[in-house]
């Protein structure tokens, strides 16, 4: 007798994969858009219009890059039913290694990138081994990683800032692709989204006998609004910042992995119900191990971007990044309980948090009060996720 597939045994995972929404209109995503709009309007008033200038929006995008990269990786981890509390410390350690290799050993950019990626893979493999092979809860493993990696960073820096990095690397974070190329790129990507989401997704749903309603509009509008933001910033200032292009490429890659690959679909099934996934033949240990190994690549990329933007590494780089990443992911609709999450929601969550931080700085809000706001947002996001989970269970 043949063994059933995960897709057949787990129909709810497929539903949850698509934001967990059971209705054509995705209120979670549009609620995020309204939230971002409200924050922007509030800070535009508080800063006398300074917040909405093209230069500040471009700066906001650059400032959100480190958080967005970490949040995209965290999203996949949480979709699989785990959590990574070590992201900030791991990114800080890879940033320190990157800055040290260039400032202390004068290593070239390609060699530095290769070494930092290896370091990130080691960190990911270390945590993946304990979680997947030994079976220690990810919360405990990554909590230990948070302390261990931060301690190693302090040992390396000895409380001193390392830097500078190569001028070309630092200049990369200040570059834009120009106004005209930015607009052309946004138009081309928007056309691709309209084709793939509005046409292909609609046809697939119709072939499956499903009522598409306004769902493909819900799928595409949030991303199109993000592209409109980039295009507007490009026209108003100097073009899309290169760090934002890096995030966009990463988002596309992870989105394709999550939505259109065997591996991605199995991650959602594992997060929804790992025991059921095992029963239908999914090697959960291997999937989780490679998930954390992939996080090692995220650590490396984020660390290099952080060192490049700061032109070095301070004694405590990426402090509290893990908390902000978790907040952004939950705000973006990813469930703490696994099985639900999307790239577009995560990006919107990162932009919302980045907007709060940027706006509070422009409005002159003290650093201490900013911590208060971030803490309240985190608690509110988790509370909302808990309420939504109870509603889904009752539904």
| Low-pLDDT windows of residues | 1-25
Structural Rg: 21 Å
Give the ordered list of helices and strands.
Answer: HHHHHHHHHHHHHHHHHH
Into which percent range does the helicity of residues fall?
A: over 70%
Mean pLDDT: 84
Largest beta-sheet details: none
**Number of strand segments:** 0
Q: How many distinct helices? A: 18
Helix/strand/pairing category: mainly alpha
Brief write-up:
75% of the residues lie in helices and 0% in strands. The chain has a domain at 64-175 and 262-394.
Descriptive overview:
There is one protein chain. This protein has a domain at 64-175 and 262-394. The chain contains 18 helices and no strands. It has helices at 6-9, 11-17, 27-46, 54-63, 65-79, 87-103, 109-134, 138-157, 167-172, 179-207, 215-236, 242-260, 262-272, 274-279, 284-310, 321-331, 343-362, 367-394. Helix content is 75%, strand content 0%. α2 crosses α13 (262-272). It is mainly alpha-helical and 395 residues long. The chain starts with 5 loop residues before the first helix and ends with a helix. The longest helix has 29 residues, at 179-207. The model is unreliable at 1-25 (pLDDT under 50).
What are the SSEs and their pairings?
Blueprint: H1 6-9, H2 11-17, H3 27-46, H4 54-63, H5 65-79, H6 87-103, H7 109-134, H8 138-157, H9 167-172, H10 179-207, H11 215-236, H12 242-260, H13 262-272, H14 274-279, H15 284-310, H16 321-331, H17 343-362, H18 367-394
Helix pairs in contact: 2-13, 3-17, 4-11, 5-12, 5-15, 5-16, 5-17, 6-7, 6-8, 6-15, 7-8, 7-15, 10-11, 12-13, 16-17, 16-18
